[in-house]
Amino acid sequence: MTEARARARTEREESRFAERFALFAECLLTGVWIAVASLPLVTYPAAFAAGSRHLGRRLAHERGGLREFAADFRSALRRGWVVGVAGWAALAVVWADVRAVRDGLPGGPVVGAVGVLALIGAAVAGLRAAASWQPGASWRSLLAGAGRRTVLDPAGSFLIVGGLAVVVCSAWFSAPLAVAVVGAVAAAAVAVEERHRNR
């Protein structure tokens, strides 16, 4: 009897390990899909939205693969490209801000720090909005809600900032590694949004 219980417990632990490893592998694969879909540069919000939906389906044990990812990507892209353009515009403004600080703008360090923090906050809000995207949802309302959650849920926001830092460090170490890690950031955003919904 004891031997049978030990065998059953070992099988359960192996099953749990296999499930977690499969989810990790799915995150890496999703990161590749997101990276490829983001190549046109303005499509990254739609790519993250499709990747987040794919990971959400995986967590709910629903069927879904590349075909569903592509369908979600096309749907999110209808208005998501505007968000992508706005993101690049915000980056350009912060870059100009940092350049002005380097050139000796009076009060520059404070202005530069505020600009960088605002950019990080916008990136977190964008990821949270993408993680909660559903077909037919308005990006404007998603971003407004995500902005509120970014401020009101600092623990979740810091988790996403940590994920972004891992992507940056991975890119510094090896660019191909950063491509796969992008899926882990999408998974972190999905987990943060799910945690917020369940609170």
Give an account of the 3D structure.
It is a single chain. By secondary structure, the protein is mostly helical. The chain has one domain (2-198). 86% of the residues lie in helices and 0% in strands. The chain has helices at 2-37, 44-59, 66-102, 108-131, 139-152, 154-173, 175-198. Helix 2 crosses helix 7 (175-198) and helix 4 (108-131) packs across helix 7. The mean pLDDT is 87.
- Rounded to the nearest angstrom, the distance between the terminal CA atoms is 41 Å
Query: Spans with pLDDT under 50 lasting ≥5 residues?
Result: none
Strand content: under 5%
- Rounded Rg: 19 Å
Helical element count? 7
Q: Which whole number gives the mean pLDDT?
A: 87
Helicity, as a percent range: over 70%
Number of domains: 1
Tell me the overall shape. Answer: globular
Structural class call reads mainly alpha
Keywords: Membrane, Transmembrane, Transmembrane helix
Protein name: Integral membrane protein
Topology diagram in text:
Elements lengths: L1 H36 L6 H16 L6 H37 L5 H24 L7 H14 L1 H20 L1 H24 L1
Short synopsis of the structure:
It comes from Streptomyces ambofaciens. By secondary structure, the protein is an all-alpha fold. The chain has seven helices and no strands.
Task: Name some characteristics of this structure.
globular, 199 residues, mainly alpha, 86% helix
